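Researcher: Go.
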Amino acid sequence: MLAERARAASHGLALATRAQKDRALEAMADALCTHEDAILAANAEDVARAEDGGAPPNIVDRLRLTPERLAGMAQGLREVAGLPDPVGEVVRGSTLANGLELRQVRVPFGVVGMIYEARPNVTADAAGICLKSGNAVLLRGSSSASASNAAIVAALRSAVADAGLESDVVQLVPADSRDTVKELMRARGLVDVLIPRGGAGLIRSVVEESTVPVIETGVGNCHVYVDRAADLDKALAIVVNAKTQRTSVCNAAESLLVHADVADAFLPRVVAALQDAGVTVHGDAAFQALDGVVPATDEDYAEEYLSLDISAAVVPDLEAAIRHIRRYSSQHTEAIVTEDLAAARHFTAAVDSAAVLVNASTRFTDGGEFGFGAEIGISTQKLHARGPMGLPEMTSTKYVVTGDGHVR
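Model: Structure:
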């Protein structure tokens, strides 16, 4: 029933003007602020339940909303409103030799299903991006965030209706049963695309079991490689920021690689700085020579910790760093710190991840930081969308062909 209502609402949304959609987005942002007390109270219920149930700190951090985070969600919606509308954009066009006018234009998917874990900010981000790109959205968050999501969606739906659009373009799928996830994954013909956002288990389950096409987002085993030509002050700041600025997100650094030529100078500095920030370093033999470093296993190098832990190794050269990344990376984000332009160019060409950064923290792989406004997720696949998914990635295309009595 929810999918059928979303399908019906999507037809009207596809014809909405940019002005109508932007008014709705501004109203949605205002609604988050107006209903701040109710949303934060609902979120407090979810957080208390998670803490009482012994949820890990990183999960609680992802779940928790604050006035600042709620204001950031509202600002993200306003930024999306200010972005160009992708719907109707001409991707390419030409006049064929026979006189036919050919245009490839962006169009909405129609109905997007979001299946995600304890991240209530995703509720607003997904609703805003889908609405701006002309898509109705079915939001299936986790039961751990059920009160938060219900309060957020209630505010958003009211705002959409007040702005003159069908409120059913934003709907919350009940999270009280696993069956609702299965129904969403089997709603081929009503739901056009599914986007899972969460841990590896959730993503794998949706990819393997869904009959609806899936845009796969991925976990983030992100690497920082400190090259022999690195400015070590820059490197220290980048590593500490990438690991500690917020540990529970997929663009936090989980692995550190250091060129052997700078290991003697850099390892004591970086280990001390990380340990001062509360980070446990899981290192190879070179790192283990320093106090407090624990031995790294093969599993450590493949781990997305989402905590104050990092794997670390010394590599003999740039090629060894690239081989290590190819073996263990989740193809999300990798960074190199170097003042050698040739090394930077080789690294960016050889490393096959959705985002590759030079002399910058992995924490910048984010739709907001890239200027996309909010993001729907970060895709690590290679079909259609890759990296932070903004408005254009939430569209398909169709060909519009205009003739003058042409026959073949």
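Model: The CA atoms of residues 116 and 197 lie 5 Å apart.
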